[in-house]
Amino acid sequence: MTKYFILFITCFSCFQLFSQGNMGIDIGQPINPSTGAINPGSDTSVIGPTCTKWVRVNFILGPWSSPTDTTLYNGKTWAQAYGEIIDKLLAKGISIYGLIGTEAYTNPAGILEQFPGADSSLSAAWIAGYTANFVSIVDIFKSKVQVYESYNEPNNWTNSNTAIVHPAWFSLMLQEIYLNTKYFNGHNSIPAWQVNLVSGALFTFDLNDGGQYINDTYWYGKNVYAWDWTHQQTGSYPLDGFGQHIYVEQGSANVSLVTNAIKANLNGFWNNIYVYETNPNKKIWISEFGWESNTYGQQFQSTNLLTGFNVFQNDPRVSLAIWFTLSDFPGGDWGLYNMGTFQTTDRKSAYYTFKNMQTCSIVTGRHSTLEDSKFKIYPNPFNESFSIEGWVLEEKETTVSLYNVMGEKIETWNLVKEKDVFYPKNLKAGAYFIKIRSTTKTSTIKSLKD
């Protein structure tokens, strides 16, 4: 089988493959659901060294009865506990992508599966209660958190073929959230309330791109509920962006297969949305994607992380992509960390791949601007060899070094002409980093002290 290698270029005059500001991490449950204590994975001493620019924060109630409950658990109210988490993240320059799902209210326990249901009043009442908590959370944090996602994976299944939330109820849910957050009660005239509301992310995989479900959601919104009225009043259908989770090719690290599978899901989802949507500027927010590490190994996970982010960062339809997740948990090895105490020994290869893609670990030099990048490194991914073309040679020696995701130097060559070819030896498939350096053009790797 052909092995492919992905190059991430780190050099003086660096050509950046990624827009680092559009990458993030899901951190799981920020608080203990039983005690309300802030979990270690929410601390910036753990999150900060990854250099992530975004964190997905799940606003769960924990032991509190509502977001406005003033009961003290571990010495804090709900608002104080989450306020501490958010303030520390913002102080580190990390933006918040807020998830307000069922854990911010109650589990609907099957009452949203059918439309109309045996007792549709229960379904409508649940949506009203959930909306009230949603609005309360936005009210508390609207000056600090600008993006909120609603119900998590409404199209996921409770049995062989029934979605947890019927698309009709989902369309009502989006309508109620949007109007009560951004329009009713005079909110339409208050800028602070005009946050970005992303539709609850749909679960998509190799056999389901989520297109039919989002298409049905728009159909019910326009034909059963008052989405057209909302559009007339607010200038928009009741969502500012489209949430999507992508879990494809879970057994392959073939760059072409994984890339094509991701693009197929994006295309199927997008094309069904724009049967109805009138605003071409609305984008997809990938709030989860990932691969596990135990079955196929850490290099498998690391390679696919890099492939996935590469696809998303080069697709103008995608506003943000968030890796699932920071740490392994019982029954799931999706994390950048093995389940443990967040020590350096718990970090997987994917941790270093993620970190090396961020601004704090990019190599810089005297002129590390994109405009100075006249050279090319191709193909990327490569197989047997890669070429460098257009680097301006000087009288001084220029070296090309290859590193793995752990920062270990694999091989070094001299660059002797402005178009040169290099043949790495005995590489395993995966992600690697290139550093180019001459005597007069120096480069250094910036890193954080953990």
Give the helix/strand layout.
Elements: E1 5-9, E2 23-26, H1 44-47, E3 54-58, H2 78-91, E4 95-99, H3 120-141, E5 147-149, H4 167-182, E6 196-205, H5 211-223, H6 227-234, E7 241-247, H7 255-273, E8 283-289, H8 298-313, E9 318-323, H9 349-356, E10 363-364, E11 376-378, E12 386-389, E13 398-404, E14 409-414, E15 419-422, E16 430-438, E17 444-445
Parallel strand pairs: 1-16, 2-3, 2-9, 3-4, 4-5, 5-6, 6-7, 7-8, 8-9
Antiparallel strand pairs: 10-17, 11-12, 12-15, 13-14, 13-16
Helix pairs in contact: 3-4, 4-5, 5-7, 7-8, 8-9
Provide a brief overview of the structure.
The chain has 450 residues and is of the alpha/beta class. Helix content is 27%, strand content 20%.
Number of strands: 17
The appropriate CATH architecture of the largest domain is Alpha-Beta Barrel
Content-based structural category: alpha/beta
- Which word captures the global form? globular
Instruction: Specify the helix fraction band.
Output: 25-40%
What fraction strand?
15-25%
Average residue pLDDT = 87
Q: Specify the biggest β-sheet.
A: 8 strands, parallel, barrel
- Rg calculated over all Cα atoms: 24 Å
The CATH topology of the largest domain corresponds to: TIM Barrel
In CATH, the homologous superfamily of the largest domain goes by the name: Glycosidases
